[in-house]
Amino acid sequence: MASTTPDADGVRLTYDRAGDGPAVLLLHGWPGDRQDFAAVADRLHADVLRPDLRGFGESDLHGDPSAAGQVTSLVHLLDELDLDRVVVGGYDVGSRVAQQLATTHPDRVSAMVLAPPLPGAGRRVLEPTSVEEFWYQSFHQLRLAEELVDGSVPAARTYLRHFWEHWSGPDFTVPEEHLDRLAAHYGRPGAFTASIGWYRAGSGTVRRALTEQPPARRIGTWTVVLWPEFDPLFPRAWADRVGEWFSAATVRPLDGVGHFSPVEAPGAWAEALTEVL
């Protein structure tokens, strides 16, 4: 059953929590919600926490949508639930937020399982094949994006269907009821605009890739990176610089699936999370 908790700056997060054992925090992507990890959670013998991030799903739509703002909410949530240290899993937006959490609060993260994006793409994001994929991040900077999509369930469904079909692997078909649920959330007035606040805050891959530099101190958290075979956004060649940002990361190929790997391959995610647990 969903629960909510207020953040220190007045943002309420909605989350699902179930199971017993070590604590696991699972962070979804765009355009998704906390249900992205539902099938993964069902396979874990753990105390699993799945929140909707700020600006997504049933959580509040206001507040700082950047990685730093997301971490503020998550740390407050962990405090409210008396969870000292957690294993964190995340992909897409959730991957970036997990990395921020491990960077700023390493004492709260015992291990991570991540899927792209990871740092190190660099100017490869400007190659023609990449520009063709990342057009939406520039589009999300325009007021036109919200004028065309925000407040319309049919428009949200059409827009989201494109990404769920184009970014997924060749053997995955997005269920219609999955699109129905997401469209109902993203189609509420203000909801789509809130979700793309992530990109407007400068958190998208293109902006980050062109400015990020390897840190003086790498993330030391034990990390397993699951890199999908058919993610059109993040070619496997881009895994070559992970070691410049992480000191204890292992990159593993995740064959047969695309960008939405927790939905497409929940068993592989559960296996990796069980390993680090």
Give a description of the structure.
The structure is a single chain. This protein is of the alpha/beta class. The protein is built from 13 helices and 8 strands. An 8-stranded mixed β-sheet has the order 1-2-4-3-5-6-7-8, with helices on both faces. α2 packs across α3 and α7 (153-166) packs across α8. The longest helix has 14 residues, at 67-80. The chain is globular, with a radius of gyration of 17 Å. The chain starts with a strand and ends with a helix.
Structure summary:
The protein has 277 residues and is an alpha/beta fold.
Secondary-structure map with pairings?
Layout: E1 3-6, E2 12-18, E3 23-27, H1 38-41, E4 47-51, H2 67-80, E5 86-90, H3 93-104, E6 109-114, H4 128-133, H5 135-139, H6 143-149, H7 153-166, H8 176-186, H9 191-195, H10 197-200, H11 205-211, E7 223-228, E8 249-254, H12 261-264, H13 266-276
Parallel strand pairs: 3-4, 3-5, 5-6, 6-7, 7-8
Antiparallel strand pairs: 1-2, 2-4
Helix pairs in contact: 2-3, 7-8
Which percent range describes the beta-strand content? 15-25%
Number of helices: 13
Largest sheet: 8 strands, mixed
Q: Work out the oligomeric state of the chains in this entry.
A: single chain
Quote the distance from N terminus to C terminus: 24 Å
Let me know the number of strands.
8
Structural class: alpha/beta
Spatial strand arrangement across the major sheet: 1-2-4-3-5-6-7-8
Query: How would you state the average pLDDT, rounded?
Result: 96
